[in-house]
Amino acid sequence: MESAGQVIKCKAAVTWGKNAPFSIEEIEVAPPKAHEVRIKMIATGICRSDHHSIEGKFSSVKFPVIVGHEGVGIVESIGEGVKDIKPGDKVIPLVTPQCGQCQCCKDPRANRCLTIKLERQYGLMADGTSRFTCRGKQIYHFLNTSTFTEYTVVEEIAVAKIDDTATMDSVCLIGCAFSTGYGSVINTAKVHPGSTCVIFGLGGIGLAVIMGCKIAGAGRIIGVDVNPDKFDKAKELGATECINPKDYDKPVAQVIVEQTGGGVDYAFECVGHAETMLAALHSSHFAYGTTVIIGVSASTLSCDPMILLSGRTLKSSMLGAFGQS
Ligand SMILES: NC(=O)c1ccc[n+]([C@@H]2O[C@H](COP(=O)([O-])OP(=O)(O)OC[C@H]3O[C@@H](n4cnc5c(N)ncnc54)[C@H](O)[C@@H]3O)[C@@H](O)[C@H]2O)c1
Ligand SMILES: [Zn+2]
Ligand SMILES: [Zn+2]
């Protein structure tokens, strides 16, 4: 392409500081260096984790930053030494790439690479610099991806090549929401056919959990949300029933335990609050229930150890635990 090797000027949503609104700016995107690729973004989703980051929940996020991590695009140009990706390829940037060489990548129990960490060197590329500038200032990268821009630069291993016929405005969800929710069911909880599942929070993650539970053959899939507008979509995707905690004058966990004859086999927390994490745990069967925390919370989780000692299991899932077995 003509632009290869040149700085590209384009539009991006820059967040200048904690809790600052998105500012649509003209930015400069430098050409990819060795083992990097520059991508023309076509579509991106918005995940609650983008919002948590802008709120300053993660100390690894540095401002000014371009957030967004659930995108899809077309490779515009490649840096020196890039072998498996070429200009024109449709790709999904990866939040948790795998180098395939480090101790974590080689261990089937882990899906967290030690070479390219999620926190990604505090928003800089491997050489300690950024590829983004705006109004003369360096702009930080985010979660190895930064998708709220017309062009982004990522590591060669931080892209997955996808089918040429993929529908771009929906396939972007594989970058986070779908993979996270679906993988939490299949890879982390390992939901079994006929089981009863409850999902707290029916946003992008919770809906993907519902899809996973349906595919795994769960018998009852109970959606929980304080916003009843979420129920139609949840039922369309596989929820067999939905509960609004505001409709009851007792804790929602108690309602679920009563309605399921002792508690669910699998509970998923997809809100990001310590209270809903505990509610999920308490709604799981005391002797064999499994709870998977997916939501991100900055608060401390505290509970009576007897809740677990009775036989419950508490797990968490990062980006759907792909790469783990
Ligand atoms: N573990 C991971 O790898 C991973 C990946 C992506 C997102 N996340 C986290 O997962 C969480 C969900 O993300 P999302 O994008 O689906 O968020 P979202 O904001 O789209 O959805 C959250 C839902 O929870 C509902 N809710 C709020 N308070 C509630 C309560 N007290 N009880 C029941 N429902 C309640 C909201 O109405 C909303 O529908 C966030 O914390 C996000 O940061 C984690
Ligand atoms: Zn996300
Ligand atoms: Zn690795």
Automatic annotation (TrEMBL):
<dbReference type="GO" id="GO:0004745">
    <property type="term" value="F:all-trans-retinol dehydrogenase (NAD+) activity"/>
</dbReference>
<comment type="similarity">
    <text>Belongs to the zinc-containing alcohol dehydrogenase family.</text>
</comment>
<keyword id="KW-0479">Metal-binding</keyword>
<dbReference type="GO" id="GO:0008270">
    <property type="term" value="F:zinc ion binding"/>
</dbReference>
<dbReference type="Pfam" id="PF00107">
    <property type="entry name" value="ADH_zinc_N"/>
</dbReference>
<keyword id="KW-0963">Cytoplasm</keyword>
<feature type="domain" description="Alcohol dehydrogenase-like C-terminal">
    <location>
        <begin position="204"/>
        <end position="321"/>
    </location>
</feature>
<protein>
    <recommendedName>
        <fullName>alcohol dehydrogenase</fullName>
        <ecNumber>1.1.1.1</ecNumber>
    </recommendedName>
</protein>
<keyword id="KW-0862">Zinc</keyword>
<keyword id="KW-0007">Acetylation</keyword>
<feature type="domain" description="Alcohol dehydrogenase-like N-terminal">
    <location>
        <begin position="34"/>
        <end position="163"/>
    </location>
</feature>
<dbReference type="InterPro" id="IPR002328">
    <property type="entry name" value="ADH_Zn_CS"/>
</dbReference>
<dbReference type="GO" id="GO:0042573">
    <property type="term" value="P:retinoic acid metabolic process"/>
</dbReference>
<dbReference type="Pfam" id="PF08240">
    <property type="entry name" value="ADH_N"/>
</dbReference>
<keyword id="KW-0520">NAD</keyword>
<dbReference type="InterPro" id="IPR011032">
    <property type="entry name" value="GroES-like_sf"/>
</dbReference>
<dbReference type="InterPro" id="IPR013149">
    <property type="entry name" value="ADH-like_C"/>
</dbReference>
<dbReference type="GO" id="GO:0042572">
    <property type="term" value="P:retinol metabolic process"/>
</dbReference>
<keyword id="KW-0560">Oxidoreductase</keyword>
<dbReference type="GO" id="GO:0005829">
    <property type="term" value="C:cytosol"/>
</dbReference>
<dbReference type="InterPro" id="IPR036291">
    <property type="entry name" value="NAD(P)-bd_dom_sf"/>
</dbReference>
<dbReference type="InterPro" id="IPR013154">
    <property type="entry name" value="ADH-like_N"/>
</dbReference>
